[in-house]
From TrEMBL:
Cellular component aspect of the GO annotation: membrane
Membrane topology of this protein: Single-pass membrane protein
Binding annotation for heme: 412
An example molecular function term from Gene Ontology annotations: iron ion binding
Domain of life: Eukaryota
PROSITE patterns named in the record: CYTOCHROME_P450
Record protein name field: CyP450 monooxygenase
InterPro entries: Cyt_P450 (IPR001128), Cyt_P450_CS (IPR017972), Cyt_P450_E_grp-I (IPR002401), Cyt_P450_sf (IPR036396), Cytochrome_P450_fung (IPR050364)
Cofactor: heme
Length: 485
């Protein structure tokens, strides 16, 4: 069978020079438009398959998940200190044990138990926005980091002298900048990992030493803190303390392994959860400041369903179709993980008459699927209406959740938690506050660029907006409700 079509390959280098380094999702989309749904690239002998449509991604990564759920072993995983992160682990029993540990605490039933904490954090968040609206980007980071820290480790970041939030931020910044496909030559030529750190061109090794220190602080410090609390019998319920309960009765060797899984899985839930959802919350502020008419419609729905005397609850969610549509549109409009986390095939395969060699890196272009104009007309416009029909969510529109969270057995295990957090934040903030673009000296709104950063995880580039209470009654309600603060 022939290989899938793709750009002409050079001797030895293959398509190494065709792999984009800037605007990766856009450049990949251009290749898919030129060569078709399945594109083949050879990066110095490493086969790479670019999937141009959601259908192709579903066919391979979802329906043939048993063959397409591996990850590419990269020397950078070890060099940058990420061997513990299940996101980058190969498919197999070790990965499965980590995945099971996360599932135990982030399955749809388990997350019901986090509702009170998520609600409280949303109220505190609204209060912070009221008091210091100019710091909204900081508040978003703080809000999400503190709620996931409580769930993962039972640690209250406001009461703890250690700056865990900065630790997670630094770790994710390293992750996001390092794991861009093709960024480091050592990935293409693994033998370079043996180059001594002092040699010219081995900057990655010098950086790696610093990265490892930062990354391991995140894995070790909160874990140690929670284990101290467990040993003293004062640990509040959390994923870390809950997983340690599984260890009772195991042999010493098994217990040590299980503790490693528990430590790693908790760290990945914290690190993976804190920054991704945060990007979508930033997108929410960007969208509301850019589309005042959408904001007005969402607030009219909240006024009608929730009313002025209380804050939104989870029990209101089914009666708030416009809010649910708005959350789906956030995931579609700005992709948090634009080219997903690449999968790898385990065995040779055949698809649409083409040969897919084993060991291929397989890339879903989440960003491109989310703006397919045949599914989402006028894709650059933020339009919650596209998800609705006769005042209800339209099940015939391809759900952005099936794209944004990845595919098959590697799809995001934090999806349900992310969705329920987003609902609570969006509904609470819109019920209480108004978000506007900043204005120029003549009072005209200054358009926001809406650009995203580049990297594995994408965030809106820093922007300003004006946040005010919707009314004095709304302000009084937040102040009265967030009393625990
Ligand atoms: C809006 C929020 C989020 C988005 C858009 C998102 C997106 C993604 C995507 C695209 C992947 C790769 C899936 C694939 O390989 O096909 C992924 C993996 C992952 N996510 Fe999320 N995620 C979000 C929130 C979270 C949260 C809250 C957690 C916390 C538990 C989390 C934990 C993980 C983990 C551990 C993986 C690796 C799974 C594996 O390799 O088996 N994510 N996520």
């Amino acid at each position: 069978l022939p290989l899938p079509p793709g750009p002409r390959r050079l001797p030895i280098l293959g398509n190494a020079l065709d792999v984009p380094t800037k605007d990766i999702p856009g450049a990949f989309r251009a290749m898919s438009e030129k060569y078709g749904d399945v594109v083949y690239l050879d990066v110095v002998g490493q086969p790479m398959i670019l999937l141009g449509s959601h259908e192709a991604a579903t066919d391979l990564l979802e329906k043939r998940s048993a063959n397409y759920s591996d990850r590419t072993p990269s020397p950078m995983v070890e060099i940058a200190g990420f061997s513990w992160a299940l996101t980058l682990q190969g498919y197999g029993p070790w990965w499965r044990r980590h995945r099971r540990a996360i599932h135990q605490f982030f399955n749809p039933n388990a997350i019901l138990g986090y509702a009170p904490s998520q609600r409280l954090e949303a109220h505190r968040f609204a209060l912070r926005l009221l008091d210091t609206p100019g710091d909204f980007l900081h508040h978003i980071r703080h809000f999400f980091g503190s709620s996931i820290m409580r769930i993962s480790y039972g640690i209250e970041v406001d009461e703890d002298p250690v700056d865990y939030l900065t630790m997670a931020e630094d770790t994710l910044a390293i992750f996001s900048s390092v794991f861009v496909p093709g960024k480091f030559l050592v990935e293409t030529f693994p033998v370079l990992r043996f180059v001594p750190a002092w040699m010219p061109g081995a900057q990655f090794k010098r950086d790696g030493k610093e990265w490892v220190k930062t990354v391991y602080k995140l894995v070790e410090l909160p874990w140690k803190c929670t284990m101290d609390a467990v040993n003293r019998g004062v640990a509040p319920p959390s994923m870390a303390s809950g997983l340690m309960e599984n260890i009772a009765g195991l042999s010493a060797k098994e217990a040590a392994q299980e503790e490693e899984v528990a430590r790693n899985a908790t760290a990945v839930a914290y690190a993976g959860g804190a920054d991704t959802t945060l990007s979508t919350v930033q997108t929410f502020f960007l969208a509301m400041a850019s589309y005042p008419e959408v904001q007005a419609k969402a607030q009219a729905e909240l006024d009608a369903v929730v009313g002025p005397s209380r804050l939104p609850e989870y029990s209101d969610q089914d009666s708030l179709p416009y809010i649910n549509a708005l959350v789906k549109e956030l995931l579609r409009w700005r992709s948090v993980v634009p080219t997903g986390v690449p999968h790898r095939s385990i065995e040779d395969d055949e698809y649409k008459g083409y040969f897919i060699p084993k060991g291929s890196i397989v890339i879903p272009n989440i960003w491109a699927y989310s703006r397919d104009p045949t599914i989402y007309p006028d894709p650059e416009t933020f339009m919650p209406e596209r998800w609705l029909k006769d005042g209800r969510l339209n099940p015939d529109v391809r759900d952005s959740e099936t794209i944004a969270f990845g595919y098959g057995r590697r799809s995001c295990p934090g999806k349900h938690f992310a969705m329920s957090s987003l609902y609570m934040i969006v509904s609470t903030v819109l019920h209480m506050l108004s978000i506007k673009a900043p204005t120029d000296p003549e009072g005209k709104p200054i358009p926001l660029s809406g650009r995203m950063t580049q990297g594995v995880i994408a965030y809106p580039e820093p922007f300003e907006c004006v946040i005010e209470p919707r009314s004095s009654a709304a302000e009084a309600l937040i102040r009265a409700t967030a009393v625990e603060f």
